[in-house]
Write a structure and sequence with these properties.
The chain is an alpha/beta fold. The protein has 17 helices and 10 strands. Helix 4 packs across helix 5, helix 8 crosses helix 11 and helix 9 crosses helix 12.
Length: 421
Amino acid sequence: AAVFAAISGAEVLEIWKDVDGFLSADPKFVPQAKLIPELSYDEAAELAYFGAKILHPRTVEPLRKKGLSIVITNTLRPDKIGSRITARGKAAPGVIKSVAYTTDIAMADLNDVRQALGYEQINLYGISYGSRAAMVYLQLYPETVRSVILDAVAGPELVLFMHMPRDGQRALELLFERCANDPDCQTAFPDLPATFAALLDQLAEPQELRLSHPLSGQLTDFTLTRDMLTQFIFNAMYSSDFVALLPLLIYQAQETGDLGPLVSQALAIGEQAGITPGLLYAVTCAEDAPFISLEEAATLQSETVFPLTAETFLQICEGWPAGTPFAGLRQPLVSDRPVLLLSGEADPVTPPYYAEQVAANLPNGRHLTIPGYAHGVAGLHCVNEMMSQFVGAASVDNLNVDCLDKVTPPPFFVTLAGPKP
């Protein structure tokens, strides 16, 4: 209907639905939701992207080009005003329509919570994207911060989706190296890189798979491609525990031709990651997409086994509403606050060099790298004790790091029964 209206010379597109128009919230959960009488194209698309089922988010695209209005009216109540979508929407009293969510907006919310609780200062802990959030908070509200812990540091130099293939390749090569240097792993899985290459060759043509979903138990059919498999491997390398299984699963998949166990485990990891696509793209389409060069991304990806994720990501962002990123987001963090930075040596997405770059401008900062570990290390008992000591003193001085000498990553599984006794 939108395309026909755009090419037919219509002045307005009327869409008749079973509701009065766009509402400020889902009335099933918010009974007092209010009608939004007028919206802009961007506001309507954003609300649709974030779950308003009244309109497909791409409906506005052909109409935007022609400057046509969209009027949404209730079939059962034609006398009601409905919602009008135009190039420039108008404010409605008492109605908040939508906001493009960026890190600085989230941190303003956090500061409001701090004020409401009556805290003069707070201790910040941020892992992965949370480390970006903590660094933005520290720039915006430095006097309210007592100490900061950054785990799996997403520094300002990291552009998500552009650098991920390169950083994932580094983690994969560390996995191969660690297996080669481990007598049990090397004996069980000699020449793991060649085995992995042979497995990828099996997927020169896509394969049809049927397997039980690891969480729901339902039979799942899908087409497995080489890019999908390498992305599964990338996702799996986030987890130090799952990395311990990878050599065995890779070897069994190549030897038997059955990729089911490897894919099942990878699906389980993905389902439990807790990533919300709406929030992910709201933030990254504003804060990472503008800094991606597809030419540079392709150059980085060309020396890896991983797919060109930047291309797909930019395609998503073409239609995703994006706010304006915080001006200091890509600037080096400069602060005299005490900051403890933590990295897993084999992290596939936030490897230690990002933390090293951040630490360079922190006179009261200290960076610790945990050998062999992947993404996020705060859960380790040794690291947890150091974090407690750091927060108690609000200082990196005299931290007891002796226990790090005894920390080793989970041992490799050599059979499905587990590591060698």
